[in-house]
Design goal:
Chain lengths: 329, 329
Amino acid sequence: MSSPGLSSPTPPCAPEDVRRVACVGAGVIGGGWVAHFLARGYDVTAWDPAPDAEQKLRRLVDAAWPALTQLGLAEGASPDRLTVTATLQEAVADAQFVQESAPEKLDLKRDLLRQLDAAAPAGVVIASSTSGYPMTDMQTEAADPGRLVVGHPFNPPYLIPLVEVVGGERTSADAVAWSSRFYEVAGKSVITMDREVPGFIANRLQEALWREALHMVANGEATVREIDDSITEGPGLRWAFMGPMLTFALAGGEGGMAHMLDHFGPSLKSPWTRLEAPELDKKLYDAVVAGCDDAADGRTIADLVAERDQGVIDVLRATGRLRTQGEAK
Amino acid sequence: MSSPGLSSPTPPCAPEDVRRVACVGAGVIGGGWVAHFLARGYDVTAWDPAPDAEQKLRRLVDAAWPALTQLGLAEGASPDRLTVTATLQEAVADAQFVQESAPEKLDLKRDLLRQLDAAAPAGVVIASSTSGYPMTDMQTEAADPGRLVVGHPFNPPYLIPLVEVVGGERTSADAVAWSSRFYEVAGKSVITMDREVPGFIANRLQEALWREALHMVANGEATVREIDDSITEGPGLRWAFMGPMLTFALAGGEGGMAHMLDHFGPSLKSPWTRLEAPELDKKLYDAVVAGCDDAADGRTIADLVAERDQGVIDVLRATGRLRTQGEAK
């Protein structure tokens, strides 16, 4: 989506040299970003228009700090390196990277990004935590839209590694590459998308699951508790370390994904969810099988089965759920 | 769904007294059940019509045994307590519980359940591993449909605790209750459903996610690897120990699920997945909020946040993914 031809001032420093990060919006997500950047040893300035924002933010950081300490703090990391400013302009005046985490309202985001662009030093990349708006729709008011990217985290940003990075039509390719590298340096796990898709990747997947869950509750088919238990005692145990595609491939036995699609492909027509399935034509079949081969990265089915088994055991042990005979609830 | 009024012979022993289990169908799922029951100390008989079935089954059990040993074997548990029989009738002749795991073909399941019902001792409960057929549709040919239940496991059945238990219209309530208790005694985590829903619970949820993933691959929006990474580095880390509903509640900050629905409810209208959302009316809103309160079971939002944080750290540590500053990929 991003345009290599658009000229935008170069970021004033390399991703590896960033020391000062500004977080604008300090609710659950913005505050989580603050905690993450502090733990990684950055100086953080934060601004939020809510009257009790500073108090809530410092409480959030304090609550997260024991977890962050267990994860391992960067040298010199401290909650004391947080400065809450009175204005947006002060927050970003000296920043080398800006993370925006305002409420999900398009007009608000547009105007805020315009203000951030006006106030931040030239070339500094400004990333939005938006959970769904395409940057193309948000960058309309900014004087330099080239430095505006989406950097979408997961809650809580100080623990869940994933950040989805994607530019809008007017974002420079340099800003996308710079921010992907910056997040990696800052300890995140980055997926850089080459096109804008509403909801990005992980949110589309979890949103499909969430909507099906809401339908089940609405129809009295399952309770909230049953829905949660069905995941934590079931497929969720695998998804912590092996994604849905590769784990599905293992349902195909020694034949892997191809056998799985042969075997379970017809069930795509079953009314197992309200979501209509795509046609499983040869092109999709081949893409899924080849994609699994790529993701397996040389690991055989037997390797993957051993890895999955060990992973499930490790996760069960880590979460205190090793079961032995007779331990019925 | 099950009818308390239907009379069916009583199971010949209590769930706690079962010693001999028959597994009919010995592919990935059936073989996984064999491994599970062996590890839990049962005598297991197995039958599968495939010519190389015994060899494959013994290979699967051998491959699973190190994992099962780590999980903790029941006293006297041994792969030597597996007998592969030449006929279906021999497999079930002495069984105190029967687990059917044949391919997902309705006609085949119907006929197989008829044969199992004819061959198994009176009253012995026969459970089907079907991943989607309602028992009402499968129990049509059996002389005693009352003892036929669905006991739907997740792959691999020897590691993933969840079993979804549900009867058909002609299943006795006693058979449902007996099998739920039996699975618990045998070390599984049981959700007993009171009505038949195509795909049960967890499969509907993971099928929604799977179909959205297939659409994304079909449209070139994400690769298989990106889809998997987006889960394992993102929401999957939470789902190993806290379900999607409760984790979503935490996105609402100190306001919990109610605040989350106020904040993100409108995004149900966004084109974030191909799955249409239900109308978030007051009834659904209240059901979700009350369901979360029930699932939270007295834990405050702060308790849940602390639990989630510790869980994610434990899972990251268990799967070798603690990140520290500068460890960029």
